Amino acid sequence: MKIEKQVKAVSFAAKSGTGKTTLVEKLIVELRSRGYRVGAFKAISHLFDIDQPGKDSHRMAAAGAEAMLICSAEKLAFVSTHTEKPDVHDLLNQYFQDVDIVLVEGYKHGPLPKIEIVRQKRREQLLCCPNSYDPTYIAVASDAPLDLEIPVFDLNDPDTITDFLEKTFLL
User: Fold this and answer.
1) For the segment 79-107, what is each residue's pLDDT rounded down to a tens digit?
2) Domains of the chain
3) Distance CA 159, CA 30 (A)
């Protein structure tokens, strides 16, 4: 019986348009330069289709296939339908056993440890402390100084944020 290791994952949470993807891209590059295998997971709240109408795989899915695998020499994509949103830990354990850390974009209200991204120009209520402090938020990355109970990092300093990820999840 194979025992799955606990997948290490951290979510990056923010309002739309704050720069989550930009920061995650920089962190992936930095973690890879340090020798880590990195997974990326984009959680979205709307419907999506990775295939193009008219293509064979799209036609098969439209015909009612409940699972569709597209595979080439370089990549594969697996799409399956479900009736309810899968558990994030189940997804991490199923798809990310071969990486050192998964950077998740989204799940701002989920169970994963989170780093909130805050921009000064979008001074809205912080997700980490709307009324009281949410303990799943472990840090904030911001382009402005903030006085919080958790570490606050310069949003434009991915090296320091990577140091934090390394110390918190990888060492």
Assistant:
1) 888 888 889 999 999 999 999 999 999 88
2) 9-47+85-170 (3.40.50.300)
3) 7
